[in-house]
């Protein structure tokens, strides 16, 4: 069988990932607090055989609340629990900070979620990098090397706790009266510079043993951390070359930790605004997000070395502007923005292409998303994609009904789940407790 | 309307509260990890119109694993989330430590659970008092006054975070484009000796505003803490006099904090082994727990000032033993144990009465439980009861189908939920954020 891509679906605040998504026609404005909506989107993604849902988390959520909702879920672990009972196959990955959680609490929450979900849970272990978040915990943000120092200890300790109830310990044999092999449930007695725990944890193995570790980050510290601990990386890149380099860095990180580089999957973000035509897609984005385009025009000018503002929105760039434009080396999105400008779109339409969004953006028919994914995948730029639809309500269905069948027809995406656990969905090797290769 | 009692149902490890419950006929030995079982018991309790479920937590769970399961849930917050989606009226109370949790995490988890459950969540805020638990967090247990010092700060801070998104802040008006009144979502900037947080929390009010605070503890520190913060106490007492004194101490604690003492409900534990006859109840307990009776006989002797051991199980106490017996003042259960002994039961049957259990035990038909509850309730020993069935599987139904109708017939328990939120079920006053009376 040829190699096939992995696909995850981002589920955030219940509305979507572009400004104004909460005001879209047909959008229930209370989706932010609606677990019904989350279950509905999760079931849609599962219908498309996507390998996992991704629940991102801050947690600080400070923003322009007058006009826009907070960016994330109410609480990712609560959401995961609610969704787990009403889905049966799709994996579920929630972000959890290694800096602002007690390791024992992370260990128990996530392993309980893994049991609840019958082995479909992943922990996106991140160090948190925002002062806003630190302030909610009454602290200042530690420097990166300290955060990663603690992160290594936390994941080591959490995995040791996960393995502290050995896989054969739970006999629950009513006839003999042997509930468990107590000698297979042992303290871990681990402690380092930042965290410690005696254990054991009192939770038996899940169907996949224990949750799968994800990571999100882009620094050399991240490559080392993910290379040692993670089976998947939630990544971000604006070009094939960038993505390929990042993927390679994570694979090298895995090799340095004594692992097979194929054990770590680089999953790159892709935003979608699917519609039958590009014009419809752009118009939807303009009608939802147009409010912020004046401000974005100014930043677009900055990206291109031009003066642009809200008054220029209705015109394409003039030939002399195009001639003078220089992509800013400080923003990796600038080259693509200039390419779009050269196509003759008005400034408003250039912005509607999403040239200032957090990931590459597909504006138009499903086949364009499929083409993009195929190109990146075949260029070894990614092992898969996490999809951020402009609208959670409807956008998940559009992807599942539009893009997935094309990828399946091309042999690039599976037709059904091969197994029942997230570990199987990802092709990650069996692991219980700490991988002995990475702690020598 | 005459005053009516409150009733909560303890749901722990999925089996029950007596040794050997996991081996009961018809018991699925995997109930420990079964969320289906939890949902089933929760729905049974809801059918009985019980005001709340109580999910206790350690978390250390060290025990005789060869023979007995851990004592608690896999993870109470995960359990609460799973049960919330499949019940609609019953309240749900989960224990969470103020010593071993980050306040911001407690605030977000519980408020998200309260939104998920449509206003049916309670937080049993406890300080944790076991070295076993502290060791799991890599620490030693702080002394009681420090734990309660931190507990006051944590609950204050958590309630402030709950109130930091004001009740009228969330407009989500799609037509005008006003998502929220940002000026009604404000940092709390609270910090004390132990914990701090800037906030705000980004979660709108639930149907009951915010979770209800419970407490479990018996010291003067507990009376002061619960008096200030709690609307209900998960209590434990072996006699009406003791319960009445405890209830009064909590009510006085509330008054000292400037509150109406009726705002705090004292809920006392009651274990049930219901069966058509006492003999059947005792025989069930013997067949399940008989394994530990040898050891318990020895302790029973200690309680009565006698020498008893496994060889004496089949005989009642001899007249000279009864004459010599003296209830130990160190164990409040001793008086009742001697009363049962005087009734002429064998040592095995005395033990089967549950005279060494953690709460008073009803062994026999449902009417005996109803009588006990009526007597205590009418003596002002409790505002309600939390029921610990010997078997979760079946024992919840036995209580709901046997005891509840008797209490209803006697006018002592409601026939249906008066409202939809836990706050309404408890008759607790409206509150959002910090009660201004208790922080002056």
UniProtKB/TrEMBL annotation, chains A, B:
It comes from Labedella populi. The keyword NAD does not apply. The lineage of its organism: Bacteria, Bacillati, Actinomycetota, Actinomycetes, Micrococcales. Belongs to the NtaA/SnaA/DszA monooxygenase family. GO terms for molecular function: monooxygenase activity; oxidoreductase activity, acting on paired donors, with incorporation or reduction of molecular oxygen. Residues 28-299 form the Luciferase-like domain. FMN binds at residues 57, 95, 145, 148, 219. This is LLM class flavin-dependent oxidoreductase. Transmembrane segments: none annotated. The keyword Iron does not apply. Pfam families: Bac_luciferase (PF00296). Keywords: Flavoprotein, FMN, Monooxygenase, Oxidoreductase. SUPFAM superfamilies: Bacterial luciferase-like.
């Amino acid at each position: 069988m040829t190699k096939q891509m992995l696909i995850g679906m981002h589920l955030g605040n219940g509305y979507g990932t572009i400004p104004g998504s909460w005001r879209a026609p047909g959008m229930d404005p209370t989706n932010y607090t609606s677990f019904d909506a989350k279950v509905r989107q999760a079931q849609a993604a599962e219908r498309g055989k996507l390998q996992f849902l991704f629940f991102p988390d801050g947690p600080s959520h400070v923003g322009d609340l007058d006009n826009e909702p907070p960016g994330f879920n109410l609480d990712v672990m609560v959401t995961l629990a609610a969704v787990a009972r009403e889905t049966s196959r799709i994996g579920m990955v929630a972000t959890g900070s290694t800096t602002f959680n007690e390791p024992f609490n992370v260990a128990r929450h996530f392993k309980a979620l893994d049991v609840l979900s019958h082995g479909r849970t992943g922990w996106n272990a991140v160090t948190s990098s925002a002062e806003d978040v630190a302030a909610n915990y009454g602290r200042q943000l530690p420097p990166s090397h300290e955060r990663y120092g603690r992160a290594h200890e936390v994941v080591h300790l959490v995995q040791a706790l996960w393995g502290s109830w050995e896989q054969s310990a739970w006999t629950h044999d009513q006839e003999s009266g042997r509930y468990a092999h107590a000698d297979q449930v042992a303290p871990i007695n681990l402690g380092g510079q930042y965290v410690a725990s005696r254990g054991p944890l009192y939770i038996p193995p899940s169907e996949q043993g224990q949750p799968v570790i994800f990571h999100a980050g882009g620094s050399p510290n991240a490559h080392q951390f993910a290379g040692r601990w993670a089976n998947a990386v939630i990544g971000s890149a604006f070009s094939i070359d960038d993505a390929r380099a990042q993927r390679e860095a994570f694979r090298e990180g895995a090799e340095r930790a004594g692992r097979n580089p194929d054990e770590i999957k680089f999953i790159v973000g892709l935003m979608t605004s699917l519609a039958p035509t590009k014009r419809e897609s752009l118009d939807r984005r303009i009608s939802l997000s147009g409010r912020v385009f004046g401000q974005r025009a100014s930043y677009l000018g900055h990206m291109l070395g031009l003066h642009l503002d809200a008054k220029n929105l209705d015109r394409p760039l003039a030939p002399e502007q195009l001639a003078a434009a220089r992509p800013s080396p400080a923003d990796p999105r600038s080259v693509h923005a200039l390419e779009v400008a050269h196509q003759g779109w008005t400034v408003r339409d250039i912005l509607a292409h999403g040239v200032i969004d957090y990931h590459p953006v597909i504006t138009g028919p499903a086949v364009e998303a499929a083409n993009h994914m195929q190109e990146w995948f075949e260029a070894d730029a990614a092992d898969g994609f996490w999809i951020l639809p402009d609208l959670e309500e409807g956008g998940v269905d559009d992807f599942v009904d539009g893009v997935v069948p094309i990828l399946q027809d091309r042999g690039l995406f599976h037709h059904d789940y091969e197994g029942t656990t997230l570990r199987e969905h990802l092709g990650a090797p069996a692991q219980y407790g700490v991988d002995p290769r990475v702690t020598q």
